[in-house]
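agent: user wants the structure for N-acetyl-gamma-glutamyl-phosphate reductase from Schwartzia succinivorans DSM 10502. delegating to structure tool.
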Amino acid sequence: MKVSIIGATGYAGAELMRLLLNHPDAEVVHVTSESHTNVPVSDVYPHLKGIYDQKLESLSDIKRIGADSDFIFIGLPAGHAMEIGRTLADMPTRIIDLGADYRFHDTAVYEEWYKVPHTHKDAERVYGLAELNRSKIKNAKIIGNAGCYTTASILALAPLVKEHLVDVHTIVIDAKSGVSGAGRSAKLPNHFPELYDNFKAYGVATHRHTPEIEQALTDIGGEKVLLNFTPHLVPMSRGILSTCYAQLREGVDEAAVTKAYHTMYDDEYFIRLRGLGAYPETKYVRGSNFCDIGWHIDNRTRRVIVLSAIDNLVKGAAGQAVQNFNIACGLDEKTGLALAPVYP
Ligand SMILES: NC(=O)C1=CN([C@@H]2O[C@H](COP(=O)(O)OP(=O)(O)OC[C@H]3O[C@@H](n4cnc5c(N)ncnc54)[C@H](OP(=O)(O)O)[C@@H]3O)[C@@H](O)[C@H]2O)C=CC1
Ligand SMILES: CC(=O)N[C@@H](CCC(=O)OP(=O)(O)O)C(=O)O
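agent: tool returned. relaying C-alpha cells verbatim.
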C-alpha cells in the first residue's frame, strides 16, 4: 500500500513515520510540511537519518499526492483535514485523519466545541476506535481516528456502560497527559520552567474531548451520557493515565464488573486487562499500542474506579491510525504494531 503523511513534521506525523517505515505492507511515498518544504525530513527529525531521508513537500499539490497514494494519513491541527477530505472526495484514496474533523456524527457538535464551521458535512466517515467500530472501519472512505484522552477514557468505561453496570450521569474522568499531547509548536504553558516540577489542570468543564467521550459512550450504552472530564498536564513527554469514576447501579458487585471487562476485551490484543485492584502505569505502555486497564471498587461509596494507561502518540494517535489502516486493508490488526513497550 502506498501511504502519505500530511503534517509529517508534527509529533503525530513523526510517530506515524516511525511505525509506517517498519510496516511490512506500507510504503511511505509522500510526507508534507509547509514550514520545511523541500527539506529532507531527517533534517527536521535527525532520529530518522539514514532510515528515511525523503524530502518534505507542500500539501498545495494534494491532488497529485492523493492520486499517488492508497491511503493518506493526516496529522494537521483541527480544521484542516476537512479541506483535504473535500478535495479528495471523488478519488479512491482513503483517509485516516488523526485530528477531530471527522470524529463527530453531528457536525453541529464539532462546530460548537471547535469553533470553526464544518466544511465537509456530508462526508462518509466513521469513528476510528478499532475495538468499538471494527466492522465500519473496514470499508470506510474516511476514518476519524479517536483522540488521545478519549481513547484511554472510552476504553476504560465501555464495558461498564455496555453492561449497564453504572449510572451514566455520575461519570467523572480525571486524566493526566504528557506534554507531547500538545504538539510540537512552542507554547508558553509548555515551556520548560512552566512545566517542569509542576502539575496543573486545564480545560475544566470545557475540554473538547468531553463531547467525543460522551458520543462514544452514548453509542455503546444507548443512554445519553453527560460527564465531567478534567485533563491535567504532567511533566513527562509521553503517556496518559485516565482515572474514571462512576456510581455502581444497585446490586452490581465486583464479579459483575470483572466479568464485563473480560467479556468485552478478552480477545482484544491491544487491551491488557491488569485486573481488579491493579495499577496501570504509563511506563508499562510507553512506545506501544497497548491500553492497560485496572479496576477498583470502593464498597463504602459504591463507586467503581477504573484506571487506564496509553501512550498518547501510539494508541492515542499514530498506533491507533495504523491499527485502523490494518483493518481497512484486511490485514492482521497487529501488523507493524506488535511492539513491546520501551521500559524503563
Ligand atoms: N500529539 C498527540 O498526542 C495527539 C495528536 N492528535 C492530533 O493529531 C494532529 C496533529 O497533532 P500533533 O502532531 O501533536 O501537532 P503538531 O503541532 O506537532 O504538528 C502539526 C502539524 O501540522 C502542520 N501544520 C500546522 N499548521 C498548519 C497549517 N495551517 N496548514 C498546514 N499544515 C499545518 C505542521 O507542519 P509545518 O508547521 O511543518 O507546516 C505539523 O506537521 C492534531 O489534529 C491533533 O489533535 C491526536 C491524538 C494525539
Ligand atoms: C496535553 C495536551 O495539550 N493535549 C491535547 C490533547 C488533544 C489532542 O492532541 O488532540 P486530539 O483531539 O486529536 O487527541 C489537548 O488537551 O488539547
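agent: one observation worth passing along. The mean pLDDT is 98.
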